[in-house]
Amino acid sequence: MRTGSPSFRPPRPGWEIARIGEPRPADGGVLDLRVGHCGGATDKTPAQAAVNISERRKAGDPIAVWSDLRSSLVPVVLVDGTPVATGWGRIELPLPAGRHLIEVQSQHSRTWRAFDIAAGKATKLDYIGMLGEAHRAYGEAELRWNLQGLHGHTVGPRGRLNYFQYLPANAKERKSFLAFMLAALVGATLSAALAYAGVPAGIAIPAGAVIWASALAAWGIRVLWTHLRYNRLAPEAPLDTRPFTRGTAAPLVLDADGDLPELGPGAAAVLLDARFLKADLASDELALQLPEGQDRIDGKQAKAFNAVGEVVPIRHRYAVPPPEVLLDGVALGAFWTRMWLAVPPGTHRLEVRTPAAPLPVEGRAHQPHTAVATVNVDAGEVARVDLSVTVTAVPDPLRPVLHLWHCRIDRLGPAAAHEAPAVPRADVRGGLRRAVTGRYWETKDDIPPTR
């Protein structure tokens, strides 16, 4: 059962976290990373879902599932632009001492943060992303009614995530709730026993009430402590990417919620906010991931697909490479982040080219898409430019190849007057539903890390 509670175990067997590539030789420290998930919302009732499956089966759809999710949600972790791990769970990654950039790609590219590695020490970070089709809300002009006001991805120091979901997710932990229910039972039993023994009701009832009221107060204190402990993560300072950039010019990477750096006298700057969104795949494309000899999805695969957007685990999962960005003909070390670069006042030429496929392509390989924008910026000003790319890719589940690779630039130009729709937020009502239904079973997250 998916709920709003964070879990750091894979949602389905076979999607455990795995390292990408060989470990980096490093004499510095260790990144102790937990990649987790929580439940998402859906806009379908069970009856609507049943109709959806029935209609798809009648139409001969080989991927007949209740969800509208049609692309992978499995996280891919990158450090300093290099893919290092994929899946859900806990992993330890040796890294050189210094400041680094972590990116997590899932349905979209909007999760990143700077972090520090100290020599001989471990830096503990958590990532949490939402499961299910609620990811589809990202980038839409209008959100469906039950997806409005939700938020579903974050990365940051363990125990300090700025994630409102943590209040209901932790305030109702199983042990606290059971302790309160036990106290209420003991209190009621004590009141009944005293009344049976002839003690006046004015004494028997308050005597029992003291027990459960004390437990309720303790539970309330725990709720308050949870709220104070979490949601206190400040934006990271700008990250200088020169130590690991691949371009000639190294931008500063800004926190998603951070302020812009101050400009020097007579200076200007360009802020490029680069993002990608995975496109929905057609059923015939998804059917390429079915096991050999199977032409239709089965029940077990459908459950996995509804949750994570993959029929079966992908052995060679890809990361979307960053776009190629040139500013006045100079290659910029780009990332799927907010990138800030100081420039002289005047007119500048910004050229963007979509990345080449990260794996060999055996099927359709589209040519890279190029777009050019002219940026005019005066002294003391920052030109804000949006870059939005749609990525369509069909990886083979067993071999390190792609059956399709296509990137399309949807937007390269001045930032919109209004902020883009927020990425979907996690269903904070999940914890409240569990409080009502009494479903307080939960898998512990103290799993050993993968090395």
Textual characterization of the structure:
With 451 residues, the protein is an alpha+beta fold. The chain contains seven helices and 20 strands. A seven-stranded mixed beta sheet has the order 10-11-15-12-19-20-17, with no helix packed on it. The protein starts with 17 loop residues before the first strand and ends in a 14-residue tail after the last helix.
Structural class: alpha+beta
**pLDDT < 50 runs, ≥5 residues:** 137-143, 145-149, 165-174, 420-447
Number of strands: 20
- Number of distinct helices: 7
How much of the sequence is in beta strands? 25-35%
| Spatial arrangement of strands, main beta sheet | 10-11-15-12-19-20-17
Mean pLDDT: 82
User: What is the terminal-to-terminal distance?
Assistant: 29 Å
The helix content, as a percent range, equals 10-25%
Order of helices and strands: EEHEEEEEEEHHHEEEHHEEEEEEEEH
- For the report, how would you describe the main beta sheet? 7 strands, mixed
Q: What gyration radius follows from the Cα positions, in whole Å? A: 25 Å
| Envelope shape | globular
Question: How are the SSEs ordered, and which strands pair?
Answer:
Layout: E1 18-19, E2 29-38, H1 46-58, E3 76-79, E4 82-86, E5 89-95, E6 98-105, E7 111-117, E8 122-130, E9 153-157, H2 166-171, H3 174-196, H4 201-229, E10 239-240, E11 252-254, E12 268-278, H5 283-286, H6 299-308, E13 324-327, E14 330-332, E15 338-343, E16 346-353, E17 361-365, E18 370-377, E19 382-395, E20 402-414, H7 429-437
Parallel strand pairs: 2-8, 12-19, 17-20
Antiparallel strand pairs: 1-4, 2-5, 3-4, 3-6, 6-7, 8-9, 10-11, 11-15, 12-15, 13-14, 13-16, 16-18, 19-20
